[in-house]
Write a structure and sequence with these properties.
The complex is a heterotrimer of chains A (224), B (323) and C (249). By secondary structure, chain A is an all-alpha fold. Chain A contains nine helices and no strands. Chain A has a single domain (4-219), classed as Orthogonal Bundle (MetI-like fold). In chain A, 83% of the residues lie in helices and 0% in strands. In chain A, helix 4 packs across helix 5 and helix 6 crosses helix 7. Chain C is flat and about 70 Å long. The chains are: A mainly alpha (224), B alpha/beta (323), C mainly alpha (249). The structure holds adenosine-5'-diphosphate and magnesium ion. Residues 41-42 of chain B line the site of magnesium ion.
Chain lengths: 224, 323, 249
């Protein structure tokens, strides 16, 4: 056991001497989460839009997505390994990405759906009144107004996935969880802490970065 | 009786919300505080039940300084009604209305009787609403329960902050009239905040008109309309203050002040009860295109007749007196 | 249009159930839950450890986080509220794996380290939701209560807590579901739980161990989630449910 001061000195030393090594892990982590989020957006946003026109499907889809969200990450990996080993992909990046995509669905679908539903009915009426088709209305009116909330859902999903990504290491998907895991194997507090800090900082930076994008995406008139 | 003795309120040691306020709400009187938004009405009201502290001066409640009273005990003897959200959504209507008696430890039977009686008073069926929840009621019904709740422990004093302000006009008018009836019966000492001159004219025994934390005029509605103390009051009560004031005078007031015209019999002549307001009288004359109205008392005895000229003469007299 | 919509919703539901049933049929057909029948004692022990870790840490977290949430929302301490909320937000960006690992670093391996780690980790959502729940109580309502002569304690018990209850229970629900997942990692710090079988399965590439561990953990999480969803409904005063319904419609 070492004192707090020592711990900090050790930490700094660790970060300095393992800089490239940590950077590599971070890059793996970003690739994993980034790829998962892009796939999640491609699936989730259209589903959210569809939910906004079919309220029966909406309740079913949201229910399924929220059950997915409840499944503990290690258990989800544990279930996917046997299933994916049918196609020889049991361990590695594929189960990790599938898990992250599943976890992202609830925040993305729900926020898209809520955002579109929340568009002021008067605005929608006006759009209909000037003769826009449903599709034009969606592209020109509803999506721009819904953008901030959709982006907020993507942000929630990203921050969540950076945390879950740390566990994906355990099934061989790489990433910053590796530093924590090695720390556990060697009972090395400095490594554990370094890994934890790296994941937390990555999450915070992602949060900040996506807030900035959120701001850019928000039409001037919608800003509060 | 509520007596304001040189009351001053300063927020955050720089915002002067109330300045040297002096006036008295007599026992059984309904006084309405009126004035533009931010003039200090709510602040003044909330100092009475000590939801806001008093910076300087004192408020005497039935002869006792609110400074030196036990806050909790004092508040339980003051009915308090606010504009919105006063009801607790987690409690049913009976629990909401009986919250103060409950705290005071009344027994079940007494509370039930009181609830039934109050609900009848505010025009709601007690058994129908007892177990319902605030969100199952309309805005108007909620506000009735709010009034019933404030009356629950039979407090001698009521404080009401724009109690009907959030309701739509028709329901508001309805509740104002009902509340006036209740007040006629119960004779509470009431300090009531409003920003609506018509509400004040209709309901108040006296109006306190505030501006920037200072009293502009404290007078009976008729006096305020006809004899505004300064140009601010005149402007606030409006260009149509003469028209407004007509609803405050009865035909009898006119008959007492001026000699009525002799009755000229004609087939289309109309009668008017002397207890009705001049506003009704003038509408009747204009609507029916009658030249005169025959004034009757409750027994149907004719006392003479009034014409547009006569009403005009009366109003001139009242207003001139004021200048 | 409405009928087509309903049909599509039904089809989605059917596909979901069909996949679920297919999964279980496949798993049973390949004897993937065999460990549960072969080693019932071990299964029950692991399940017991898992539940113990989750409930002990959860209960302790409720006992500390709810009073703490009440404390920081009192007017006198409101100024420190942003700090607590900030810490709660920040803390949740630290991965659960790291919290467990750090607890081991300081307390050694074993069940107590796992309980402490999960306790600390579940403080955050409960605290966050307690504060949010109490903050969302309408100021006008509290004002009315004060004006009628309720004491601060009466206002807390009769008005604030009942109105914040949904949010508080939601926080406990979130915390417990997260804990069930994190407890599966407790194996890594020698605290047992159903994670033992999952990790054995990963190491040995043994599907029976994997499934016999992972599926019960999943079911546990879903059951707890539904139980608390029901509690949210059952414990919350009826008037508030109506209020929420009125707001949502
Ligand atoms: N809690 C407070 N802190 C600081 N200033 C306040 C507070 N409450 C009211 N004020 C200020 O005091 C003045 C009177 O407010 P208020 O009594 O609410 O007016 P009214 O009810 O007539 O609209 C306003 O300028 C308002 O901004
Ligand atoms: Mg006000």
């Amino acid at each position: 056991m070492c004192s707090g001061g020592d711990l900090i000195v050790n930490l700094i030393e660790y970060f300095v001497s393992n800089f490239t090594f940590i950077l590599g892990y971070t890059w793996d982590h970003i690739k994993l989460v980034g790829l998962a989020i892009i796939i999640a957006i491609v699936i989730g946003v259209p589903l959210g839009i569809y939910c906004s026109v079919n309220k029966y499907a909406a309740s079913t889809i949201l229910q399924i997505a929220s059950i997915m969200m409840t499944i503990p990450s290690l258990a989800l990996f544990g279930i996917m390994i046997p299933v994916l080993s049918l196609i020889n992909e049991g361990i590695g990046t594929l189960p990790a990405i599938i898990a992250l995509v599943l976890y992202s669905q609830l925040p993305i679908i729900r926020n898209t759906y809520t955002a579109i539903n929340n568009v002021d009915p008067d605005i929608r009426d006006a759009a209909n009144g000037i003769g826009l088709t449903t599709f034009q209305r969606l592209i020109k009116v509803e999506l721009p107004n819904a953008m901030p909330l959709i982006m907020a859902g993507i942000r929630t999903a990203t921050v969540l996935n950076i945390g879950v990504g740390a566990i994906a290491t355990l099934i061989g998907a790489g990433g910053l969880g590796g530093i924590i895991y090695q720390g556990i194997l060697r009972t090395n507090n400095t490594m554990i802490l370094a890994g934890a800090i790296a994941v937390a900082v990555l999450a915070l930076i992602a949060d900040l970065f996506l807030r900035l994008i959120e701001n850019l995406f928000t039409p001037k008139g919608v800003k509060k | 009786m509520i007596h304001f003795n040189d009351v001053t309120k300063i927020y955050n040691s720089n915002v002067k919300a109330i300045e040297n306020m002096n006036f008295t709400v007599e026992e059984g009187e309904l006084v309405i505080m009126l004035g533009p938004s931010g003039c200090g009405k709510t602040t003044l009201l909330r100092m009475v039940n000590q939801l806001e502290s008093i910076t300087k001066g004192d408020i005497m409640l039935n002869g006792k300084s609110v400074w030196h009273s036990n806050k909790i005990e004092m508040r339980r003897n003051i009915g308090y009604v606010i504009q919105s959200n006063g009801l607790f959504p987690n409690m049913n209507i009976e629990d909401n209305a009986m919250i103060v008696p409950n705290l005071l430890g009344w027994d079940r039977k007494k509370m039930r009787d009181r609830f039934n009686m109050l609900m009848e008073l505010v025009g709601l069926n007690p058994d129908e609403y007892r177990k319902r929840y605030p969100h199952e009621l309309s805005g108007g019904q909620q506000q009735r329960v709010g009034v019933a709740r404030a009356l629950a422990a039979d407090p001698p004093v009521m404080l009401m902050d724009e109690p009907f302000g959030a309701l739509d006009p028709i329901i508001r008018t309805h509740l104002q009239e009902e509340f006036l009836q209740i007040q006629k019966e119960l004779k509470k000492t009431i300090l009531f905040v409003s920003h609506d001159i018509d509400e004040a004219v209709k309901m108040a025994d006296k109006i306190a008109l505030l501006k920037g934390g200072k009293m502009m005029q404290y007078a009976e509605p008729a006096r305020m309309l006809n004899k505004p103390a300064n140009s601010f009051v005149a402007e606030f009560v409006g260009q149509d203050r003469v028209l407004k004031s007509m609803s405050l005078y009865t035909v009898r007031d006119l008959a007492n002040a001026l000699t009525l015209k002799p009755v000229i019999e004609s087939p289309d002549s109309q009668n008017i009860n002397e207890n009705l307001s001049l506003r009704v009288a003038i509408s009747k004359i204009l609507n029916q295109e009658a030249d005169q109205l025959i004034v009757e008392n409750d027994n149907g005895t004719r006392k003479g007749s009034i014409t547009l000229d006569l009403i005009e003469q009366f109003l001139h007299r009242e207003i001139k007196e004021s200048v | 249009m409405d009928r087509t919509n309903k049909t599509i919703a039904l089809i989605i539901k059917l596909i979901f159930w069909a996949l679920l049933i297919a999964f279980f049929v496949w798993a049973f057909a390949n004897n993937m839950f065999s460990k549960i029948w072969e080693q019932p004692d071990t299964f029950l022990r692991l399940l017991g450890e898992h539940i113990t870790i989750v409930l002990l840490s959860g209960a302790a977290a409720v006992l500390l986080a709810v009073p703490l949430g009440i404390f920081v929302t009192r007017p006198k301490f409101r100024k420190s509220e942003w700090l607590i909320v900030g810490i709660a937000n920040l803390g949740q960006t630290i991965p659960s794996l790291a919290v467990l690992a750090l607890a081991m670093g300081f307390l050694g391996i074993g069940i107590s380290a796992a309980v402490v780690a999960l306790f600390v980790y579940s403080l955050l959502p409960i605290l966050q939701n307690t504060i949010a729940g109490l903050d969302s109580v309408d100021d006008n309502m509290i004002d009315a209560a004060k004006g009628m002569g309720l004491t601060n304690t009466q206002i807390l018990w009769k008005i604030e807590l009942p109105n914040a209850l949904t949010s508080i229970i939601a926080g406990v629900r979130t915390a417990l579901v997260i804990n069930i997942g994190t407890a599966a990692l407790a194996y890594l710090i020698g605290a047992g739980g159903l994670g033992v079988w999952i990790f054995t399965g990963i190491r040995l590439f043994d599907n029976a161990f994997l499934m016999s561990g992972a599926v019960p953990v999943t079911l546990l999480a879903i059951v707890i989630d539904y139980l608390f969803k029901w509690l949210q409904f059952a414990l919350v005063p009826k008037g508030l449910r109506l209020a929420r319904k009125a707001q949502n419609s």
